[in-house]
Fold this protein.
Amino acid sequence: MSESAIEFHGRIVVVGAGKMGQAIIAGALASGRVKPAGVLAVAPSKSHREALEQRFGIGTVSAAAELSAYDIGADDLVIMAVKPQIFFDVLSEVKAAAKSPLLISIAVGISTDSIERVLGRRWPVVRVMPNTPSTVGRGMALVSAGRSASAAQERLACELFALFGKAVVINENLQDAGAALSGSGPAYFALVIDALTRAGITQGLTRELAQELSVQTMAGTAAMIERDDIHPEVLIDMVTSPGGTTIQALNELEASGLRTAFVDAVDAAVYRAYELSENERADDDENGNGE
């Protein structure tokens, strides 16, 4: 966090310390603003808990229901990093065991409204959609505050997730669209790397060399666009010469409908997120959580 960052003196409880949960713990501890004694992880597996304790020096419990022994309250922060399929069961345990801490959810497709209907409207909730590059410190997180979360709590969520990448505030109704780019995006880029690697192999390169060329070129291109804050078309013009090899390759990609394919892919991802959220709302009402 920067020197102007909000001071946070409470505890951080990570419910579901998988890869993303561990990335959050590692980033918080690396910042120096959070000490191991101020972090508690919830993990059902004994071997997993032991591994977390050994790696981070933090406390662990086996279930969210055990949080009642720690007097988790308004000064603390609970991060829900469990799978959507068990989210509401675990959320009910958190509600029974804690006293209105700031709750940050990173569960895919679960709205702040549906969480607030379980917890109560006065419980502050912030929804965050991080992506998998967060585990290597190059993540992108989308942050949306619920109705009872303050501007300071929204900013705290941004600063926490910025510890392992970037974080931006986004209107919650755009979460699905944003996630279709940054959340699903690593799979798109991995597909492009694999396609370029296969093309290189076809031309006689070894897989190892073809993949190294593809990965480094993609990483370097992204770094240039980010550093110089330029439109991608500017970089395309920098690489492309009249009548050269690059323009010939680009013409083939355009003829194959590459841009349209990406537009259609993102549209499909957004629509699928809508379907999943509709199913989640239907299940929520069936379980008696609706109003």
